[in-house]
Write a structure and sequence with these properties.
alpha/beta; six-stranded parallel beta sheet
Length: about 240
């Protein structure tokens, strides 16, 4: 879980036989980037959203089948009203931009009841209109908390255990009750900005993931940074607890 050096060679990054199927991103550092460059906070969020658009294409170019982007945690909902309203608008616009391409399949992870109706609708519409697209899977974690995801799944499983004869509580049945049902667990979790923690992101799903902590702020994350992360992953020996 240590941060690899920035000069890690890129030569192994595109080794498809060892590449991850699912990469999850904690896109951290938009506010610090804005402050460092003397810009309003909302400008940092906008530049970060623009970089998500680029990074989605970088991931597809190296054969990554599924990406998850943590854009808004439940804790983020406690930010100041002006910043939060602008951030929600930026996420809605980003959702529409990617859905309009007509290539990727999109899915919302999180509780739509915590979001403004306009954003919840945008996320739901994107999921519905892109479900038959042939491109990679893109998941937007918005209003998402790993703990809340687990709690919600526990309630579903408890109800099924009481009401369904023969229902078996198992890792498989529990995973099917999570918001990520049907998706592979992330092979690699990338967090930018130098912070070295998950902060509650995909706590069940990332139990056996490789963790890569990148020192750059998200708006400065480049395709070369992605290749370094993939090189790091390619050099790991995944034992899955064995």
């Amino acid at each position: 879980m240590s941060t690899p050096p920035r000069d890690l060679p890129d030569s192994t990054a595109l080794a498809s036989d060892r590449g991850p199927r699912h990469v999850a991103f904690i896109v951290d550092g938009n506010r610090r980037w804005a402050q460092a460059h003397g810009h309003p906070v909302e400008h940092g969020h906008q530049v970060g959203a623009d970089n998500v658009c680029r990074a989605v294409r970088w991931c597809e170019s190296v054969g990554i089948e599924t990406t998850t982007w943590w854009l808004l945690s439940t804790d983020n909902l406690n930010r100041s009203a002006p910043e939060l309203h602008k951030l929600l608008d930026i996420i809605s616009e980003l959702t529409d931009r990617l859905a309009a391409v007509g290539h990727w399949r999109m899915r919302h992870l999180g509780d739509p009841r915590l979001l403004p109706e306009s954003l919840a609708t945008a996320l739901g519409d994107a999921e519905a209109t892109t479900c038959h697209n042939q491109g990679p899977q893109i998941n937007f974690a918005v209003g998402y908390s790993g703990r809340q995801d687990i709690l919600a799944a526990a309630r579903v499983v408890a109800h099924q255990a009481v009401t369904s004869a023969g229902f078996s509580v198992s890792e498989r049945s529990f995973a099917q009750a999570l918001s990520t049902c049907g998706l592979p667990d992330p092979d690699l979790v990338i967090r930018t900005s130098g912070e070295q923690r998950l902060s509650g992101f995909m706590l069940w799903q990332a139990a056996l993931s490789e963790l890569y902590f990148c020192p750059v702020l998200w708006p400065d994350f480049t395709q070369s940074d992605l290749h370094r992360a993939l090189a790091f992953y390619g050099n790991r020996q995944r034992r899955f607890g064995k």
